[in-house]
Amino acid sequence: MTMMNLQPQNDFSPEDNIIPEGFRSVSCDQETSEEYYLNMGPQHPSTHGVLRLVLKLNGENVLEVVPHLGYVHRGLEKVAENQTYLQNIHLTDRLDYLSSHINNLGYCMAMEQALEIGVPERGEYIRVMLSELQRIQSHLLWWGVSGMDLGAVTTFLYGFKERELITDIFEELCGARLTMNFFRPGGSFADVPDTFIGRVKNVIEVMKPALDEYNRLLSGNIIFLERTRNIGILSRENALSYGCSGAVLRASGVSYDVRKNDCYSIYDRFEFDVPTRTTGDCFDRYSLKMEEMAQSLRILEQAVQSFPEGPHRSKEKAAYKLPKGSYYSQVETARGLLGTYIVAEGGAKPYRVKFRSPSFSNLSILNELSVGHKIADIVTILATLDFVVPDLDR
Amino acid sequence: MKQTVMHPQQNTSPTGVAYIAKAISGFFSLLTGMGVTIAYFLNPKKIVTQQYPENRDSLEMMTRFRGHLSLILDEKGSHRCTACGICEKACPNGTITVLTTKDITGRKILGRYIYRLSQCTLCNLCVESCPYAAIKMGRDFELATYDREQLTFILNPEEVKQS
Amino acid sequence: MNTLPTDSLYPVHNAIGNMVRAFFPESALVINSLLTIISLLLLVALLPVFLIWLERKVAAHFQARLGPMRVGYHGLLQSTADGLKLMFKEILKPEGADTFVFFLAPILPASATFLVMTILPFDHPLQVADPAGGVIYVIGISGLSILGILLAGWASNNKYSLLGAMRSGAQMVSFEISLALIMLVIVMVTGTASLREIVLSQQGTVIDWWIFKLPVLGIIGFLMYMISSTAELNRAPFDISEAESELTGGFATEYSGISFAMFFFAEFVNMFVSAGLAATFFLGGFLAPQFGIAVLDPLLNLIPGFIWFFAKTFFVIFLYMWFRWTFPRLRVDQLMYLEWKMLLPANLLLLMLAGIFMAMGWIL
User: Fold this and answer.
1) Residue A179 contacts B where some CB pair is shorter than 8 Å
2) Which of A80, A143, A217, C360 has the largest CB neighbor count within 10 A?
3) Complex-level ipTM beyond the 0.85 threshold
């Protein structure tokens, strides 16, 4: 039997298990084989939402993983074709709900590019600061949840403790904690409240000892190190060829961050490093994200010091009609590169909107990383790949 | 066909002095972690959670909180809505229906302002688009009901009753 | 220093038993047996209720929360309410499950804990039975709970349950060995396998408890006992058999209602038993701590022995909870590595060193 035979074996009676769709290798036909299929999800504690993985296992060892997507597919790209440009901003909240400010920013930048709208100084500062707060917020949630996936439930609560300070800022700013819908072409719909800078300073102050505490609790823990080191090693070549981005790419030794390499907004004015790692295993992805939080705090510190006065938004338009053409913008979300591609025909609604979501590309390497590991390692790998299921399905 | 199972995690385990050193350093790393958690245990001031339904009286939402939509009323109970329908157009989900009627002089005025909370994503676009600043997002957040029908509101019930 | 009498080994005499014997000399055996069964049943029924509440409270405070606060004072009746809810829930049996084994499985761990409770020395005269081979009895009986888990996983007709049961089986069988070896160290140094005698061998000051009496080795032995008993209890960081983030519910995935409650209750009583054994072996059991201070020691002696026993046991239980709410979970192969390549050699070394210490008389 060759590996090319993709047909399900026909000598099974219908009652027998047949190979679930999507598997590349045929199942072993030996009598003594102990292979079996395990359905992980769509309702499973560690697939974070409704991702479904079908595992081919031999005992505890993983032979193949096939992700099945589409359980929260809402057709956002199609919905976007039937709504005005301004209305579409609130759809981007619902891509990666942990990076909604950054998603908003990506979409608004594509519109600004089309309409040639500038953003005032204060507006740019608000954008950068909120993006970085959002990144820290998302990473904190990820830290807590990945700790919980590995069995340390306490991290979940500790991560949320600090995250709450940041969501409070968002709530005071725009009235929502998750789906912000805050940025508009040319700035944002409202100016920041007076307490904003004070609150950001408080976050910076609280986060520094908190990060240290997180490292003492989890990062140095021998069990955690044993669970993550040399697990799910992603080579540089694979990371590039699968189109990974964000921490997953940088942990494999590729220094690419949209903020640094294809600078947008006013990121070029701030001093920050793009941390990289070399091995590309789960621990590298973990420690890289921890360092990213420190770098985001660095940006925030600089922004707080030079936060300017002035208008927060350039002049508003009554209706936004993009001229005919296609527009692309990309931002670095907490998970990686989010590309927004708009094809306009000149009307009030876009002809086509395409989102290039980081979670989708990052998840596509799952099989490469998991083969040969144990079931428990799949959970570790899923945790450090850090995807958001609505961002996968859109 | 025999499938080979790889074991990438079977890295060589340390031997000799390295083995003992790892065991000891590992043990101390565990103690460090336990130190973090016991600090929280012994210090009840670090508790961050709130007892929600009990603290209802003192619970105050932020001023910009985006709850359900409502008309801004002045002291006399009258609103500023001119039934222009801009909010209806601005809404991405068809949440708002503005039904107009005519007053004695034949001027177009607001008949019913129908708001369907069940469809609303609380995106704030209607409030932003309103040229007369006649509507606002409320600060209530306990909006769950047992029946979907109860989520359709008429925002100007007084006027509807009068007519 | 007053030494406690060691003559009356079995049947154990205590005040209530003697009173019954005095009033009803004919039927004393039946009444006393009934009394012990009822009191043990009450203890087995009430302990998990309290321990679950304690676990939730301790977990909450480790996590900067308050935990249950609604039912009763600081949620004291929360686990009673949960238990009632579980009792009234429908018992579901998955299609294709082996009915007899499926319903037999939860009973085994519960009965195993009940059986071990009978020989715990709560106080000097307060013990149901004190067989000469108490330690061997403990090791033998605790195998029953593994059997229950294995059967539960097999009968559930669910791959997650089966995986959990197989993990649990492998884990418990291996950690049983180190647990037995550590108990063997204590049996060797005391020269008896009766639990009460082991406690009585620790009379004197705090220094005479086995954790300190064997210089250095005692503390190492206690730590190793804590590690292997945590694994034996299937508690985090060794809870791979129910690893909620990997196997959803492990062996208990398909259980609901009272059959789930049986597993849950057994788990908590097991924790108490395990902690009680730790207190018996290393912390002087029901003996009051004596510091050699003339003013303090008689005062401490006034407190009855069973209170000391419970205090020491709950201290060990707190340690278990502290572990659980701090550490991430080990992987199944790492668990085996820990047992066979680290704990077992260390145990054998400990046994050998303890023998040398005994022979050389290096005991405090």
Assistant:
1) yes
2) A143
3) no
